[in-house]
Each structure stands twice: as C-alpha cells, then as structure tokens.
Design goal:
By secondary structure, the chain is an alpha/beta fold. It is 47% helix and 7% strand.
C-alpha cells in the first residue's frame, strides 16, 4: 500500500526534517548551520552528556514521546530533528501556532494505518513546535494516539509544560528542560559558523567576539543572526575578507532582548530571583533583578509588594526600619511611575538586602496558626475578657519594669523565638529576662 502525501510532512521517512532550501545562501545562517550530526550539537550537557537518559535513548535508537522546554535558541528543535534523523519512521513537523485539528487528524489517521502495518514505516514521528499554543481540545485529540503508541510525539515549547500541557498528555511524556547556552557552547557554535562560511571569510576582533557571546543571552539563533548581519554589513577588504569590529558587533546585536513575559514563568522566575537575592543579602544581585524587571515594564506595585513581604518575612524585628522603608516604597509605587519610582524601590530593596535577617516573626505566626488549626483550642481567660468581666486582671504599668506575670494564654506555649541578629538581640535578651520571672 502506498503511503499518502500530505502538505505537512517535515521530510522523507527516516530523514531529518530540515527545510528543503537549507543550502541556499538567502536562507538565514542559523537555519543553514542547524546541526546534522550529534557531534555538532552544543550545550545541554545536563541532559545530553554521555550516559544521560536522553543520550542513551538516542544512542540506542529508541524514540519515545517527549517534550523539550526552554528559552529560544537553546537547541530544542535542533535536538528533535537529530532524533528524527535516526528514527525509522515517517516524520511530520507542525507548528502549533498555525496548525489546526484538521492538520492533526490527517497525520493521526496516517499514524493509525501505519501502526496496523498498512505502510512500509510502521512508526510515525510528529515534531510539534510551540505545543503550548494548542488548547485543551487540540491536546486531547493527540492523547489516544500517543497512549496507544500509534504516534511518537516530540513537543517543543518555550513555556513551562506543567502549566500549558494537560496532565493526561504530559504523563505520557519524558520531560527535558533545555537551558540558555553557556559561553563554551556558544563559542563552539560560533567557531563552527566561522568554519562553515568560507565564502564570507569572516574574522572577528577579540572584543567583537566577546561582545557577541556576552550579549546574545544564551540564544544561539540570536548569536548567528548577529554574526551574519555583522559580516554582510561589512564590506570585503582587498583580499575578500570581512573583518568584524567591536563597533559593528554592537550595532549588529543591538540591545539584547529581555526574555521576560509578564504572563509566563519568566515573570515569576525574576521576582523569585529578586526576593532570594534580598533574603541572601546580595545587594548587587538585588539591584540587577530589580533593574531588569523595571526595564521589561513590570508593574512597580507588584515589585513593591514583594519588598514589603520580604521586609516582614526575612528581616523582621532584626531591623524594624526595613518594613517602614518598604511601606514608604509601596506608597510611592501607588503615586509614582517610571522612571522616578525606581529610586524609592531601589532604596527599600537595597536596605532589605543589607539589613540583618530574622524570620522569627514569620515562623511565630505560622506556628501559632498551626496551633489554632490543629492544637488545643483555648478560651480567653477571665482576667483578659472585655468590659467588667475581666476579673483578676493586673495592670502591668502599675508594676516595676511595667511587667507582671499573669495568665495571658491557658496552657502556654512558646511561638516566638527571637534571634541574636540586629535589634532582635535586644528583644531576645528582654524576653529571656521576662520569661525567667514567670
């Protein structure tokens, strides 16, 4: 039985799904240099190193449904195509941003027939880019075929699959996280690009090379696009070579795009880094993450609320000034916009970062809440009741030191244990004295 042809196949069976015009010089350099061999692939050693799960699957020719997630330009599609090149399967490639259910059903019908032995290749491999664009209904269409093994699906996404892919489908996948490429991986890609473009005769000044590597934000596609623009915009010299200077490199890569979408993981990752830097007493990291969020257009009120919380949770009574400055910054964010609001936000955030730390107040209220929810329920003792019912109440200000021991809680239990950090040490010393009198 002859295999049907569709408008969507990525390439001939068992071949990498590279664009058919990849050899043309008007195709972007990043597309022309897509790795065709495993040795050409750079980066992702945490999942691709010899002996790792993904590498073992590739080396043994075992293809299983998987999802690759990570930032742009880190090798997700390149890896999927390398796997496809080794698969004894009919290969299809779709982009979920433009494909619909009708496209899926054509491929799934073919996969079902192939699985039954109707065609030469019994396995069908679908490379599905931007899988997060498929809604629940579209994802549900895939589920039965993936579950029965009629189709092998490799999905690629820049989003967190645990938020954007439904649980039933995700449970059938191996999930691999791709990370921004580090400098050694980017340097390998750059050296390969220079070696694979002899017609351009590109040479890079050391400063130009360092600038491209530093400003591409771990994105190989951005790096190669900038290299190509720099080379093509540099006229050849007498020998036909193109010498790329630092100035040309700066113009070619321009301002690095901030990988920050207020609606996705980047939003939460950056605020998490900001909070952890304040908690960890690193003012420089605090300033950087604050600046990046502000530059990306984050709502200053959102940032101010997090400074407020951190001041209470992580500084607490070790330095009560922190929460007062956080309160001022929060109020400033309500009435000021950029660029002015950056100043009170920076002042509060950096004060919190540099302040002595104590989470004793935070731990105390959580311990007290746990006691209320699961411990012994206590009634208000008579001496603390309101109005004229507070029989036996003793007024502390009538006593030396403005303190007198009396029952404030039946079956007393300690929740607050102040540290010896900052001003909280004074509180700890005082409490030790008072508790010794009970």
């Amino acid at each position: 039985m002859e295999e049907p042809l569709f408008t969507n196949p990525a390439g001939p069976a068992g071949q990498p799904s590279a664009p058919p015009d990849a050899a043309r010089q008007d195709v972007p350099l990043a597309a022309r240099l897509a790795p065709s061999e495993l040795d050409d692939f750079a980066g992702q050693s945490h999942i691709f190193a010899p002996g790792s799960l993904l590498r073992r699957l590739i080396d043994t020719g075992t293809v299983r449904s998987a999802v690759f997630h990570g930032p742009p330009g880190c090798g997700k599609t390149a890896m999927a195509r390398l796997i496809a090149a080794r698969a004894n399967a009919r290969i299809f490639e779709l982009n979920a941003a433009v494909a619909g259910v009708a496209d899926l059903k054509k491929i799934l019908d073919h996969a079902k027939a192939a699985f039954s032995g109707a065609f030469k290749h019994r396995n069908t491999l679908l490379l599905l880019d931007e899988i997060h664009h498929f809604n629940k209904t579209q994802q549900d269409v895939l589920l039965p075929s993936v579950e029965r093994g009629e189709i092998i699906l490799i999905g690629m996404t820049t989003e967190n699959p645990f938020y954007y892919i439904n649980r039933a489908l995700l449970s059938r996948f191996s999930v691999f996280e791709f990370k921004p490429l580090d400098e050694p991986a980017l340097r390998k890609i750059l050296e390969r690009a220079l070696g694979k473009t002899p017609e351009l005769k590109i040479t890079l000044e050391p400063d130009a090379e360092s600038h491209l590597l530093a400003r591409c934000a771990g994105d190989a596609r951005k790096l190669l696009n900038a290299l190509e623009v720099a080379a093509l915009s540099t006229g050849p010299d007498e020998s036909g070579g193109r010498h790329v200077t630092l100035k040309t490199a700066e113009e070619s890569i321009q301002q690095p795009a901030l990988r920050y979408d207020k609606g996705d993981d980047e939003h939460y990752d950056h605020i998490s880094a900001f909070i952890k830097s304040m908690r960890g007493s690193d003012p420089d990291a605090t300033a950087y993450w604050l600046a990046k969020m502000l530059e990306a257009g984050e709502d200053p009120r959102f940032i101010a609320r997090r400074i407020f919380i951190c001041a209470g949770e992580d500084v607490g009574n070790a330095d009560p000034v922190a929460i007062m400055l956080a309160d001022t910054a929060f109020k400033s964010a309500e009435v000021l916009g950029m660029p002015e609001v950056r100043i009170p936000l920076a002042q509060a955030a950096l004060y919190v970062a540099c302040a002595p730390k104590s989470n004793a107040a935070y731990l105390a209220i959580d311990a007290a809440l746990a006691e209320v929810r699961t411990g012994r329920l206590r009634s208000v003792p008579d001496n603390l009741k309101s109005g004229g019912r507070n029989k036996g109440y003793v007024y502390p200000h009538d006593w030396p030191g403005h303190y007198v021991s009396q029952v404030y809680m039946p079956d007393p239990k300690t929740f607050y244990n102040p540290t010896n950090e900052g001003r909280e040490k004074l509180i700890a010393d005082r409490l030790r004295q008072l508790r010794a009198k009970k």
